[in-house]
Design a protein that fits this description.
- The protein has 151 residues and is mostly helical.
- It has two domains: 106 residues, Arc Repressor Mutant, subunit A, CATH 1.10.10; 37 residues, no CATH class.
- The chain has a three-stranded antiparallel beta sheet with strand order 1-3-2.
- Strand 2 and strand 3 form a beta hairpin.
- Helix 3 packs across helix 4.
């Protein structure tokens, strides 16, 4: 009786999900540590991120993006202005509104330290043949995914 082992896509997806959850939880822990260390709430960090990616960002836009009330956004922006992480610039088209801009200090806080040591340590326990096989398999997967995404 033959006991051949056959891998199917469901097995790969399950394995991928388990690995992704592991590394994602490490990332979440690093982000939480970064926020604690820099005395930032998740909403404050989110505001910094949105302002960094949007040009001419208004309080109304931030409130809509984060699904928060205008008063909550005003409070968050006031705190960030007080800390020198953002500043308000008058909207030249509507003097009653302001654009929120990121300061250099605010930009620095957006960088969450990436600890690749965790990843490296996870792979150091593997034999060289296993590392080679894993590397080649991941390259094949990456190339196929990128090729399919371009179609």
């Amino acid at each position: 009786m033959s006991t051949e082992f056959h891998v199917n896509p469901d097995m790969i997806v399950q394995l991928y999900n388990e690995i992704s959850k592991h590394f994602s939880s490490q990332r979440v822990r690093r982000l939480a540590e970064h926020l604690r260390k820099n005395d930032l709430s998740l909403n404050q960090f989110s505001v910094l991120n949105i302002v960094n990616h949007e040009s001419e960002c208004s309080s109304i836009h931030l409130a809509n993006m984060l699904k928060l009330k205008a008063a909550s956004i005003t409070y968050i922006i006031d705190l960030l202005v007080k800390r020198g992480l953002v500043d308000r610039v008058e909207n030249p088209e509507d003097r009653r509104s302001h654009f929120i801009n990121l300061t250099e200090e605010g930009r620095k806080l957006l960088v969450v330290p990436e600890d690749t040591a965790d990843l490296i340590q996870s792979f150091e326990a593997l034999e060289q043949d296993d590392l080679d096989m894993l590397y080649l398999s991941l390259r094949v997967l990456k190339n196929r995914i990128i090729r399919n995404d371009k179609k």
